[in-house]
Structure formats: C-alpha cells, structure tokens
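S.,

Sequence below, as promised.
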Amino acid sequence: MSARGRCAKVLPSELNKVCPERGDDPATHPKKMSDFEVVPNLQQSSSSVSKSRRKAHFPAGSNEKENLISWIPENIRKKECTYFVESSQTSDSGRIVCECGYLREQHLDDAAKPPIFLGKEWDPSRHIQEMPTDAFGDIHFTGLGQKTGKYVRVSSDTPPRVIFHLMTQHWGLDPPNLLISVTGGAKNFVMKPRLKNIFRQGLVKVAQTTGAWIITGGSHAGVMKQVGEAVRDFILSCSHKEGDIVTIGIATWGTVYNRESLVCPMGGFPAEYVLDEENQGSLSCLDSNHSHFILVDDGTHGRYGVEIPLRTRLEKFISEQTKVKGGVAIKIPIVCVVLEGGPGTLDTIYNAITNGTPCVIVEGSGRVADVIAQVANLPVAKITIALIQRKLSVLFQDTYELFTEGKLVEWTKKIQDIVRSRQLLTIFREGKYGQQDVDVAILQALFKASRNQDHFGRENWDHQLKLAVAWNRVDIARSEIFTDDHDWKPSDLHPVMAAALISNKPEFVKLFLEQGVRLKDFVTWDTLVYLYDNLTPSCLFHSKLQKVLLEEREHTSKAPRLQLHHVSQVLRELLGCSSQPLYPKPKQAERPRLSIPVPHIKLNVQGSSLRSLYKRSPGRVTFTMDPVRDLLIWAVVQNRRELAEIIWAQSQDCMAAALACSKILKELAKEEEDTDTTDDMLALAEEYEHKAIGVFTDCYRKDEERAQKLLTRVSEAWGKTTCLQLALEAKNMNFVSHGGVQAFLTKVWWGKLSVDNGLWRVVTCMLFFPLLYTNLITFREKRLQPMGCLARLRAFFTAPIVIFLMNTLSYFTFLLLFAYVLMVDFQPRPSWREYLIYFWLFSLVCEETRQLLYDPDGLGVVKMASLYIKDFWNKLDICAILVFIAGLTCRLIPSTLYPGRIILSLAFIIFCLRLMHIFTVSKTLGPKIIIVKRMMKDVFFFLFLLAVWVVSFGVAKQAILIHNEERVEWLFRGVVYHSYLTIFGQIPSYIDGVNFNIDQCSPNGTDPYKPKCPETNADSKTPIFPEWLTVILLCLYLLFTNILLLNLLIAMFNYTFQQVQEHTDQIWKFQRHDLIEEYHGRPPAPPPLILLSHLQLLLRRGLLRRPATRHQLKEKLEKNEEAALLSWEMYLKESYLQHQQSQEKQNTEQMIRDIAQRVDALAELLDLDRVKRTGVVEQRLGSLEDQVHQSAQALRWMMQALRGNGFSSGEDVPAVGSSKALETKEIGLEGRAEESQPPYHVLARHLLYPGSHTLRFPVPDEKVPWEVDFPLYDPPAYSADHKDMAVQDPFSLSLESLLKINYNTMDGLIDRQSFHGLYAVQDGLPLNPMGRTGLRGRGRLHCFGPNHALHPVVTRWRRNLDGSIIRKSLKKMLEVLVAQYPLSDVWALPGGSLEPGEMLPLKLKWILRREFWPQFQNLLKQGTEVHKGYLDDPRNTDNAWVETVAISVHFDTQNDVEMKRLNSFLQGCDPELCIRWQVLDKRIPLHANHKQLLHKVSTLLGAYY
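The prediction came back faster than expected:
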C-alpha cells in the first residue's frame, strides 16, 4: 500500500523532500478543526487573474502562481481521518489498517487515541474532518517528455462553483461550448480496430470543433485510456494551438497510485509523477494524456466511485451555466458518451437519462453498451427479464454468475426506463446510414434531445441554432435544423446572423444568406453600432476608434459612446480625402439612432437582446444606405478574409467595393505592428485588386463604353468618389495599367480628337490652325465633322494633348529667353526681355496658386496644401520659384547684382530639371525617368557609406601630414574635397614625399592660396612623416572606395534597374494619369497668356459668384442609368465568380485534392459496404425466420382446427417451428415501431420518489399487474407527514390505525370511491387498481386509496390581429390557460387535488379571485368532461393514487363575456403566480400526465396538437 501525503504537521525535512524549492512555512500547519467546518465563499486576492491574460501554465515565480498558492488553501479542502479504528481487513502487505483504509502512521498524530471518540464505532460523518488541501499545482509525467497538466486534491463535499471558478479563473480555461462526459468500463477492454479509430477520431473532432470539455475518470485504464490516447494521437498530428483539447480527469484521490509525489502544501510547480502500471496493484495510475485532474478525497483509501457524486454535481452545475460569446448566450449542453461498462455504468446512464442528459451508446464496445444497444429499438413491452437475462449471459460471460435474481429485475427496470426515453438515447452503430462519424452522432444526439424537449413556441429551434453557431458546425445546422420540419423566417435569423458575424463564422453567414436573410433588412443603424462595439480588441481599427473617442472625450465633459460618425472619421483617414464621410455626424436635434445600451446586449430572453433591434416599429428603425458596403467594411477592417469574400459577393457596386477594400487594407498594413498580420493584409489587398481587375475585364470585353463609365461614375455609397480615384489612392498599379483604363486615359488625353491622329498632324495644326478646316485632323464626334464648324477650333485647343504641347512650347521658349538673359543680356538695368521673363514667371506663379486653391471636393485649404506639397514636381516648382525670387531680390539691389545673377543661374538649373516632368508622357523616356528617380534613392544611401570612408581617410591623412591647420576652408579641402577627388584619380603629389615641392605650399599656412606644408625637417626641408603608412592607407582607401563601394553602387543600380524594368510599364502607366488629369483641368492658354484665363476665373468666382467649372474625371449619372449600369456590373460579377470557381476546379492541385477525397470516400464506402453486407445477410436470415414462424403458426392453427373436429387424438403431434425461431421472434428485429401508449403506469414507477430520498423497488413492466406472481417484491414504505393539511390519513402502517378507514365509500368528508369501481384491500391497505408501483404507504398523498383531483382545461382559439383563427396543418390552433406555481419549475393546468368537501382545487383558488369562484363552477358545469379516472402521477404508490376529472372549458368567440371576465380576474391574482395563455402544442412544457389531457381536448375540438 502506498503512503499517503498529508498537510498537517509536515516536518521541514519532509517538506523539503516533497517540495525541494521551498522551506518550512508557518502557513502549512493546520488550523483548528472549527475553522474547517464550512467551505467559505470564494475569496479572491487582489491580483485576480484576468481573462485576457489567461495562460495554460503559469511560469515559476509569476503573479498567477502566487495568486493560486494563496487562493487554493483558502477555498479548497481535503479530508483526513481523525480517529484510528482497526479494520477487520488488512492491507495488501498484511498490515493493520483503519476503517478508512489507511495505515496507523498515515493518520494525524492525535488520531490514534483521541479522547473524545474513544470506545465509539468509526463513523465517516464524524471521524473524517476537512482541512486545507495539500496537493495542487502542475503535474509533470516523468519520462514522457513535456506531458504537463494541472491537478488539485479536493474534498468530496466541495461546492461545484468553487471548482468551476478554479478551472476558469485560475487554470485559465474558457467555459466550454459543450460538455462531453465519457463513461464506461474502468478496466482495459478490447475494441475492434476500426471502431476504435472511428471513436477516437470522432470524439476528438467534436471536442476540437465545438470547443468542448471532455470529462472522464482520469485513470490510465479502460475508457479513460481510450480517450487519452485519442487526444494524444490528435495532438501529435496537429500543429501549434490547434491541438489544445481540454480533457479533465475526475478521479478518487484514495485510489491514485504514487499520489504521495503530488503532495506539496505550497503547491507543486511542477510535481513529478511516475506512471507505473506494473506495481499499481488494486490502485490506478493517472492518465498522462489528460490536461487537468480533479482528485476527489473523502478521507478513505482504495474505495472506487467516491468521485461520482461530485462529478455529477459538477457536470450539472456546468450545464446550468450560460456562456455568452459573439452575442450568443447558450446554456452549456452536456452529453454522455458510453463505451462498454458494468453496473456502475448502467447507473450513470440511468441517472443521465433521468436528468434529461442525452446519451450516445457506442455499439460494439461490449457489455452494458451492447446490452442497451441491442434492445434500444425494441418496444418496451418486449424488453423482459428473460431477454435481459439472455443478453447478460452472452455479454457478461465472466461475471454472469454474480447476477442475482434481484439484480436482473433491477437491470430490466432501468433498461426499460432508459429505452422509454428514446429521444435522449442515440445508438452509434458502425456503418449506420448518416452516422459514419462519432462526432455527428454526438451532435445529433444533442439536437434530437433538444428537439424533443418541451418548450414554448420556437424557443427550442432558437436554442438548437444557437448551439450550432456556438459549435461552428454548419454541417449539423444544414442536416438537423434547416429542414422541412420548421419554417424559418428571415427575421428570426437576424440575431444569430449578428452572432455569426461577430464570432467570425463565415460558413454560417453564407448559410443564413441562403436561407433568405436580406442584408437590407438586417443591417440597421443600431446593428452596425453593435457590430463595431464588438470589434476584435486586438485589431488595429479598434485601437484607432478608441483613440478617436479619447480625443472627443478631451473636448467634452462626459465619455462619448461609439457612434457611426466616429467610424466614418477613421474610415476617411483610410480611404483618403477624395471620399466624403460615409456616415455623417447627426445634428443635436436629430436622433436617427435608437438609444440602446449596446455593451450589455445579449442574445437571451432576459434584458436587452439583439432580437429587440429587429422587433421595433418600422418607423423607429433607421436602415443604412448600403448594408453590403457597411458589413464589408466591418469585415475588412478586421482582416477577415472568408467573411469579407462572402459579403463582397453580395455587393452591387462591386468594383468600387473591391478597390476601396484594397485601399483600406493597405493603409492599415502601414500602421500594423505585427508582421504576419501585415503580410495577410497586403495579400488580401492584392486579392481585392485582382477581383476588381477581373470584373472590369469582363465588363470591358462586353461593352467598352459602359465599362469606362464605371471608372468615372460617382459612387454615392463610397463617399462620392470614383473607381479610378480609389485605384489611384490605393496605388493599384495593376488596375490602372489595365488596357481598358489606359484606353480611357488615352481617350481623355486626346479630348474630342480621334486617337489615331498622328502627333505631327497635331503639331502642324497647332502652329498653322487654319489647317483644322481640312481633313488633316479628325474628330470623334460627328457634330464636329463639318468643315465650317467653329466648334472644331474650340475642341482642338481644349484637348489636353494640345494644351500640353502648347505649354511645352511655351516652357522651352521661357528657358531659351531665360538663358539668353543670363548669358547675353544681364544689364544693371533690366531690359524688356528680362521684364518679359518676370512677367512670364508671374503667370507661372498664378497657375501654381490656382492649382493650390483648386478644391472641387471641398476639402479645405489646409488639406489641399498638404496634397499639393506631396507631389514631387510641385515641390520642385516651389523651389525654383523661391530661388528665382531670391535671385530677383538680389538682382534689383545694385550692391548684390552679381550674387543675384548667381542665384538666378541656380534657379535656371532647377527650371531645367522641371523638364523631366514633361518627358514623363513619353512611353520611351517616361520609364527611364522613373528609373533615374529610383536610382537617386540608391545614390543617397550610397553616400552614407561613402562618407564613412572619405571622412575617416581624410581626417587620418590630414592629421598625419599637416600640423595644426587652423583655416577652416583648407581643413574642408584636405579632409573631404581632396579625399573625394582621390577616388577619381587625383592623388595629392605630396602624400608619398617623392613629388614634394615646398614652393607649392605655405610653411606656416599664411598664404591663403596655398595649403599648409606637411611635416618637414627644419634643416633639409624634406618630409619627415611616415610615407609607408600614408601609402598603405591610400591603397586601402582606394581598394574599398574604387573597387568595393563603386561596384556596390553599380550593383545597386543594376538591381534597381532590373526590378523597376519589370514594372516600368505599369509604373509609367500609373503616373501617366497625373499628367493627363493635370492638363485635363488646366486652362487652354499657355503662359504667359494663361493670365487671361486666370482673370476670367477671378471675375466668374469673385464678382459674378458663379461656381467654377469642374474639370474632373467624374460623372454623375441619372438614377435610372446608374441602376441599369450597376445591375449590368453585378451580372458580370456573377459571371466572373463562376469563372473563378471553374478555374479553381480545373487547377491541378485542386484536381489532385478532389481525387484524393474521392478515393478516401470510395475506400470508406467499401468498408461500409463490407459491414452492411454482413448486416444484409443477417436481415435476410431474420426475414426467413419470420416467414418460418408465420408458417408454423398457420400450421399450428390448422392442426388445432383438425384436432378440434376429431381428425386426430393429439398424440405424438410434432412441434411446429423451432425454438430458436420463436426466441428470435420474441426478441424482434431492429426498427420495430414504438408502442404508442404504455399499457401500465410509468410515472408512478420512477425509482426515486419525488420530494424524498426514498427509492422504489424496481418493477419491470411485466410485473406490474397484481395478478402476476412476483415473489421478490418487497417494496419500502413511505408516508409523508403533511403538517399543513387539515385532513390526512395516518403515516404509520399499523393495522390498528388502518382498520379505522372505510374504503370504497364516503368516509366522512373523504370520498374513497374509485371511478374504476371497487378496489381490493389487503392487510388494511387498498391496492392500486393499475398494479404495483414499488412503494407502500401513501407517499406524499394525504389519503389512502383514491385522491380525487379536478383539472379544468380552459382553451380558446389562437387568432391573428384581424381576429381570424390561425391554422397549422389545416387544423385550427388552440391556446390553453397554464400556470406556474411558486417553488415549481414547470407549468401545469390550473387545477389539482380537491380538499375534502371542496368543489374547487386549492391551486385553482389561488389563481382566481374569490368573487369569481361561483361563476367558474358554472363554467365547469357547462364544460365537457374529457377524462374521468386514474391519473399516472409520480406521487402514486401501491396504496394511494390520484384520480382526476378533466373538464374542457372552451371559449369559441373572442368576444365571449365570460372569457373577458376570466381575464380580468386573472390579472388581479397572486403576484407570485405566473399565468399565461399558451399555444397548445405537443411540446408545451407541462407535466406529462397533463399533456395527455390536452391531447384529449385537442382531439375533442378537432384542433392541432
């Protein structure tokens, strides 16, 4: 027997052995016993673990570990035996043990002879005490690599909420979306290899996809080992976090082998645990593949099953918790999965079914699982004791002799009750159609249980859909929820649609769209605010929104709530200034939104719910202009690829949407810090650019003119911008360089001229404009074709290409005149040519000012100035103008005439550089200029490297050669200038001393035109510096600069050229747009004549107040034309998407992947076919046996008929039909129809009697009638004492008290007559006319014999708002009056037991006011009796039962006076009661016996049920 660790009185030396990292600590000593009597409330320390900082394992020394060490001893206890009593049994080694199972030395020091317990028998309730736990922390399985988990030793009386708090807050587990309780055989058993693989894969798949917790017994044996190995195999096959599956083992502390290594009062971080199966004996080792362990301690050793009650309570507690995620609030569902198992497993299944937990039985795993699986499809009446006996003899061969007759009866009763709840039972059969995977079977079991669960209205369907969304199992939603059984309204899907969006479940969004959800109806103003309130906190857009809110808070007194204009503010930064705000800021007087506390919105029936956003009156809901755009932006800013793709496929203005998404993503990528996220954003931006190109390509192929309209159409949805502008803002070079876009730009460049006009013709006509009236130039518009048309002149000179050529000619003229003045005609007094230059420059300044102030989009002067400065050529213009003005200022001052000329010469250089902008229009020179610009960046980077060598060599050379040179200009020459020239071969003559000439230098540095001489000998005037050193430095310098750095520069130039050359055409086409747009909006006249155009503009804007003519590449279309254009674009988008799908299918990799999937599916089908083939043979044999049995019956009837007529004496008659066939017929085949109505009472035989801890004697169906002999029948007796009842029979079963009762007659005020006639009385007790119940006495009923009740069934027709009756399946629908009484969780009919001498039940009187009682009695007299007799009630016993009269009170018209009066009296009833008119349906949550009464009423009225 292994030694047990404990917390109390641990010696320092022992503590160091267990926890070597810690010494003695006073906190480890025990407190007084009285301190441990009650588990205190949760005591959280100040450093509570935040959910956002949860980790799987705490690092040593962290705050989380310290918090855990302080929290666990305060809230979690263990159990210790405080009184040693020798047991009759001994340990495995033959030593004396206590009744608790532990050795004497494993007890506390005072436990051997406690004076208060001396001489008393050992009682666990008194002699086992709680104290702080001493085993918790991280468990590390020695020798198994990095296998590490969490563990804790807890008392068996620990509240489940404490354990749940530990798991979620301190162990860092997220609450599960599903709880899978796996139970079964605790010993190793053999499973078929294929079934084992199917089970493992399916279990782990359902846990991984739904975010479930798997709970097992935690030991390394049996079903727990199977689960652990399944998790292990999955983790090994997965990467990174994908393999994290929460597997919780709940085991008994007293049965864990090597548990002493887990004892550490201050926590084991980690505790080393050795898994030793060979020496474990009767104990069990923990399974190394579980992630968390809860070790339940009741103070005993070696006793299995201690953990079951706590496990049951914990599972129930978790299943009652509500998890809110992504706007969906669901109660955590639980499912029980059963493999193999023995008697304990049967009890677990029975308790699960009784508590409403669905169970999945894996057939083929053995023992209990196979017993239940083989009888699950039989009618309950066919499940007999004999059948169960035969099954057990086959499946429990080794232990069959241990089954007593009483055990067989108990097993038969429990299996009957299990099978009776077929809606909670799912049998997983290998090869069964639709159940190839265990995960599908588990989820189908939950849905089947939920579907058959009682509910009001459509709550059940909503719950199922919430589960599917929470689990992210769209396959289950398609097969189990969206079926013909329920018609979903699109509005019903809006809340779960929002939840699917928030939790990023694109498949569900796609499914909801397929089911009819219209984004136009879904996306309201409030919904959009709700979505942005639930942005992923880690996304960059969320932080930018918070920054905007913080900035607004600084200007306001209170904290602002998130509104859409805040979103619009961030979006405008991302989309660029060319777009208008997407969501304008509402005025103070206007309230376009609904005021809803968005942060508290949950998808449940309490509080403010998402559903309320869609159930408001239409006048109060504000819908957005373009819901697809809004959702697309919301998805894109979070970088949700799949979700955005689904939404984009729904968009109408798809090309603008794709380009806008590309722009947003590129801007976010610039600010994103995470490299992986940045790469994802850029890849997604490129993908959307390709989408835009694909759609535009299809459009351009169909119709060039309409496609070009799409480029310039003003999109109201995207801030009144255009597709072309969005592409330019996003720098989508691939899109702009598209042939269709370039054709459009060429068309704009040529204006109204035909693009096939040669350039020489344009230049000729520009110089000799009368040639315009010849056929030399052609125009695109027919109205300009006539020769005498004056518009030809205007059309020609307003064409951008002509404006460009005239401006080029003007600029060359300006430069020639400027050069002439500088070189020939620069006089002290300016000549007329120089004044002309000044005038010319003034016209250029005016044009630059016009470009600066031109603001067609109303962006403001500051924004326009910033956009103007961003352009490189504008910077060059400003620089040239400023330098020219500086030179002009100096030139006009006589004393600075020469410096002015110098500055003007520099200005001329800058003006000449401006010529490069003119050459960008050339397809030949334009790309080369781009290459030169890129190489200039390389030169600047190269200069940094070169400066290091130049300065280092120059300073060293100067310091070695020359002593104390004080002249700054000569210092610069020596350090920088001479070193720089050395690179190009101008080596100083004095550096090596050979060519030294003292006449070429100044010895003292006094000659301003000569450098200072190097260090020389004062006598011989020869250099004394180390020539060898300067030569070596010079060689190294030339080696690194001439050979290394210059070649590096050449290599950089080559790389840049190669890189740019590949994209030169795209870059040139992209930058070509700027030049075309500039000259498209430029005045026709060139400088200096452009001043006339400026004067005209000034008169128009300043004096006449007329708006300026906009020369933008934008076109505002009429509504009808725009709608037709967008419909055409959407049609071609669908064509593009279909083409993309077909291309993906034809992709080689995709084809290989599809073929591999088909091969796998084919192999699966072959395996299934092999399994089914065996089943088909068995079915055929069974069918043959059925036919033989029918033939035998016919022959038997014939022989009996012949014998009856005297043809045979009946001797030696052969038996007809084999016993095997009869046995098979008795068992029946799978798929028998379930009996519609049980022949005996069922509720009255539930094992646990309600309201008590009394267990009934198990009574199988075949033993219910009193006429059937049942020798084993020995039911317990139970009679409750109702102190609140005035009249009740005695609760003792003494014959003396029972003889005073008169049965089958009126006994005073008590009516003991049965509606079923006389009943038998035995030993002074009446016998239940419906048979045995498993309990004697009167239970909770107040009288022996019949207890009479009255149940009025008050109904009315369900009507629409217009008063018409609602129908379903062609039948009228009813509404029934139901009530929920205090301290009750279920609804019931307004009636109950009749007190002696009363006409109305007490519960009915609670509902009605006293003055309405007589009128209600009249209604009952006028009603129709639908039932009179025995009522199958859980309170019934062998000697007391309920008989009721059910009367239907139906109000046929909605204006019935009595109904209105009834409603008025209902409104004033007891506030603790809940009363409602509920739609009558078979799933209405009522008592089962009440639902039978409702069925009879609906049949009577011909209504839907």
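The chain is about 45% helix and 10% strand.

Coffee later?
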